[in-house]
Specification:
Blueprint (H helix, E strand, L loop, with lengths): L1 H18 L7 H16 L22 H40 L4 H15 L8 H20 L10 H11 L3 H21 L8 H16 L9 H11 L3 H4 L16 H12 L8 H15 L4 H15 L4 H8 L22 H19 L24 H9 L5 E5 L4 H7 L3 E2 L6 H15 L3 H11 L3 E4 L4 H8 L3 E7 L2 E6 L2
Parallel strand pairs: 1-2, 1-3
Antiparallel strand pairs: 3-5, 4-5
Length: 503
């Protein structure tokens, strides 16, 4: 499909130019890559903390181990550039596939570009080099399959493709819980439709049994992991902590952050479509996004799941909207909107011209990066940490300090800097990082209280004898180390201050 191909190329170049630094803004990029590298080097999965002073030796599992290993393999080939190449190819491929389906159903290309732009704006705050990207793409595949079954494009038996997907997803990222919730809402809705006499993919008792069986297998699939029950326990620890939402941005309420407002236009458009749609064609798939919309207001990490789930309904929802069909009558559509499900197999037809092109781009990028050529977009050195987010200006000082000190030299760092230090100065032993499941509520609470009580910082310093400290300018920790006669500023930049203990 020509439009989908052009859209894919445009999105790939746009995201490469605009995201070659932005996608490295999360500490998880560095931490996950480091964990994956150690797993490959040691040939074992961690079962205790390998990195921090406070929690050394305490039980901890690499809950995203599969995603971390993949990140490490990509980094070993071509650094952050290869990670960026694969991430943006996947994002562009998914968005172009969705755009191709919209045009295939008769939506005007300009309106399609507008909708893809809205989806991009609503999810871009989570475009970061970390396993969360896998969850976003898997959510799209899951919802696409469920909608295809609901619309009759695929049979109910096609749901047996989901258990393997769930197994991979669970070992890559904890947002598999969102996928299971989505599956549960669809399955429950289909059974309810059967009970009230509305049409759906489940038409009799045999269908209910078949659906119940595949859903049960999917819910058990996350247990296929090297950590057993410890994996879901870790997810529960994170999701039920009352302090996580105060320290981790992705767990904060939607409207508590500026980027949360970018989701509101897509929410409004989705509600508008549902309200103006043909009620006779109402399906479960049109209702499920409302659950994610409510959850998105409580945690911004749910916003991409809402945006993707809602956008996947557009190819079927838009043609049934009375307002959009009015536009068709005014000549604002390039082709007649198709109000009925397409023929079997058409769900995947936009992939055909895209997969080959994506493969060529990946192979070309791998060749250029493997050769070490420094070129824009494809070459080495294109993806770099943003100097306005990370202390890149003083990184040489940090690395020199680490080089002249023995392994496991203790250093203090603030909450958001742990992953950065773990990656670039791996022989230093950091104070803490953003693994909330490791610190638990007690550790997180003490960290929050330390920003108000300097005596806690003093007790840490006495206990761990920090040889250095990386702080954020003008933070409570920065003020303490600046006032301490035991420490001296040896390097600083707008986003970081490095202290070393006086001889």
């Amino acid at each position: 499909m020509f439009f989908a191909t052009i859209l894919f190329l445009g999105l790939f170049l746009f995201l490469q130019v605009g995201g070659h630094q932005r996608l490295l803004n999360d500490p998880g990029t560095y931490f996950h890559t480091r964990v994956g590298t150690l797993i490959l080097e040691r040939g074992e999965l961690p079962r205790q903390d390998w990195f921090t002073l406070q929690f050394e030796g305490q039980p901890w599992i690499a809950q995203q181990w599969l995603g971390e290993v993949v990140m490490a393999v990509l980094y070993k080939w071509g650094g952050f550039d290869t990670q960026l190449l694969f991430a943006l190819t996947g994002i562009s491929l998914f968005l172009a596939w969705l755009g191709g389906r919209l045009v295939q159903r008769g939506l005007h290309p300009l309106l399609t570009i507008l909708l893809v732009g809205m989806l991009l704006d609503a999810t871009a705050h989570h475009f970061l080099l970390r396993p969360l990207l896998v969850s976003m793409l898997f959510q799209g595949l899951l919802v696409g399959l469920l909608l295809a079954v609901e619309g009759g494009t695929l049979p109910l038996a096609a749901l047996w493709a989901l258990p393997p997907l769930i197994v991979v997803w669970a070992n890559a990222h904890g947002a598999v819980l969102g996928g299971l919730m989505t599956l549960g809402l669809f399955a429950g809705g289909w059974v309810l439709f059967l009970l009230v006499g509305r049409p759906g993919p489940v038409t009799d008792r045999r269908g209910v049994i078949s659906l119940g069986l595949v859903t049960t297998v999917c819910f058990l699939a996350p247990l296929v992991n090297p950590y057993g029950l410890d994996l879901p326990r870790t997810w529960g620890t994170i999701m039920t902590s009352p302090l996580v939402e105060k320290l981790v941005i992705e767990h904060m309420p939607l409207l508590a952050l500026p980027q949360g407002f970018a989701v509101l236009p897509l929410m409004a458009f989705f509600v508008f479509l549902v309200l103006t749609a043909d009620r006779q064609r109402l399906g479960v798939g049109w209702l499920v996004p409302f659950a994610w919309m409510v959850l998105a207001f409580s945690r911004i990490r749910h916003a991409p799941l809402f945006a993707i789930t809602a956008a996947m309904t557009f190819p079927d929802l838009i043609p049934s909207s009375r307002v959009l069909r009015w536009l068709e009558g005014k000549g604002l559509q390039s082709a007649r909107l198709v109000p009925h499900p397409p023929q079997p197999g058409s769900l995947f037809s936009p992939w055909k011209p895209l997969l080959g092109l994506a493969g060529i781009i990946l192979l070309a990028g791998l060749a250029v990066q493997g050769a070490g050529w420094r070129l824009p977009v494809f070459g080495r050195g294109w993806a770099t940490p943003h100097p306005e987010i990370w202390p890149e200006e003083i990184r040489p000082v940090l690395e020199a300090f680490a080089a002249r000190h023995p392994p496991k030299t203790p250093v203090f760092n603030e909450f958001g800097a742990g992953g950065y230090l773990t990656f670039f100065t791996p022989n230093l032993q950091i104070f803490l990082d953003d693994r909330c499941e490791l610190a638990k509520d007690a550790g997180l609470r003490e960290y929050v209280e330390a920003q108000k009580d300097p005596r806690i910082i003093a007790s840490w310093t006495a206990r761990y004898a920090f040889a250095g400290a990386l702080t954020f300018p003008r933070s409570a920790f920065d003020r303490w180390f600046a006032s301490s006669p035991a420490y001296l500023v040896t390097a600083s930049c707008p986003v970081g201050v490095w202290y070393e203990r006086r001889p």
